[in-house]
Amino acid sequence: MASGATRGSGGMTKAVEPPRSVELTTDVETRGARFTTYRARVRWQDPATGQRKSTSKGFRDEDDAQAWLAHITSAARRGLSPDHVERSLADYGEAVMDLALRGLEAKTTVPYRAGWKLRVVPSLGHIPPPMITTGVVDRAARNWIAEGVGRSSVKNSLAVLVRVMEQALRDGLVDRNPARITGWQREYRLAEDELDDPRSLALPDWETLQHLATALVARSARRYAGWGDIVEFAGATAARIGEVSGCRATDIDTRSWLWTVRRQTTPGPGGLIDKGTKGKRARVVPLIEEIRPMLVRRLASARERPDGRVFVGPRGGRVTTAILRDATHWDEVVTQLGHEKLRRHDLRHTGLTWMADAGIPLHQLRLIAGHGSLTTTQRYLHPNRDTVTAAGDLLSAHLNAERADARLRAV
């Protein structure tokens, strides 16, 4: 049977008309400095109602505006109107969820829906399905793993996303399913190594951290120095990247050089949001001399910002571990430096390892780290075998002395 034809009830074939393209009118407007520089606009006539519609979007770069228009135009040729293309994943998934989950048993749909609500929507729900790429899904999955989400929960979250994007494929919104990613299970092996021996993931010294920061800045677009500041600050304070992004000028006391960690930046509905720390309570972290000159410089800039944020991206936006990775070509740089397994979270392991080696008492180290369990903090202590052996010798000497005293009393 020829393509574009179907067989009718009487055995005859009849042509199936391809979806008619949607006629668009597009333009890019240059706007004033207080607005987003370029505004791309699309106008079209709804083929069903005949109503004239329009949608627009702001961009800082003209090439990005033209790329968005090209994407909308390409979809229109396939019969998709711009309002369907720009519909968020959260809205689209809500509309097609029953269809996407058809054929599954209730015991399967329950964890799938939980994964959709708790992980997929907060991380990706604001993005239109046509704009979701394999890289976007891959980063979301790795962020879930870094946040401590269990293996089965990640699997269920990806499974429901695959089904929703499969429906988007059938609807013509995408030309392939970007949610079918592989390799994320390997992250759990790294996580298990982290639980067993987090010290092995730390950088050896301050000079190595500085060298890494310099190399990342050199590899970034326009050599943005802020990436190096973020890396050094995270290593010196043993903080998570989200906590670094959430740091504001009012959180830092330059008289005592202490930082009160109150919030972290994390993906949420509609984009990035600030929320409480992972431990749900504030903690105080010392700020060492090595980073104070950098902080003085950044604090002066932060106080001029409405949000008072100390560490931002090159355009003033909030930072996540994924943004830092992509902007600095992290994986490429750390491999070239011989740290191929180093992740952004390992800057936290670096700081805690250094603090433990500096002799900070265990109970204080736990408070600085914000650990809920003392067992977690103990993994950062140096496994000094000589010290353990000496402790055993002291115990033996003590017991031998008691036995000698007992023999003397018996004589």
| Share of β-strand residues | 5-15%
Percent range of helical residues? 40-55%
Major sheet: order of its strands?
A: 3-4-5
What Rg is obtained from the alpha carbons, in whole angstroms?
28 Å
Oligomer: single chain
The separation of the N and C termini measures 111 Å
Large-scale geometry: elongated
In N-to-C order, the SSE pattern is: EEEEEHHHHHHHHHHEEEEEHHHHHHH
Structural class: alpha+beta
Give the helix tally.
Answer: 17
Notes on the protein architecture:
The N and C termini lie far apart (111 Å). The chain is α+β, with helices and mostly antiparallel strands. A hairpin with a 4-residue loop joins β6 and β7. The protein is 49% helix and 12% strand. It is built from 17 helices and ten strands. The model is unreliable at 1-19 (pLDDT under 50). It has a three-stranded antiparallel sheet with strand order 3-4-5, covered by helices on one side. The protein has a three-stranded antiparallel sheet with strand order 6-7-10. Strands 1-2 form a two-stranded antiparallel ribbon.
Brief write-up:
With about 400 residues, the protein is α+β, with helices and mostly antiparallel strands. The chain is built from 17 helices and ten strands.
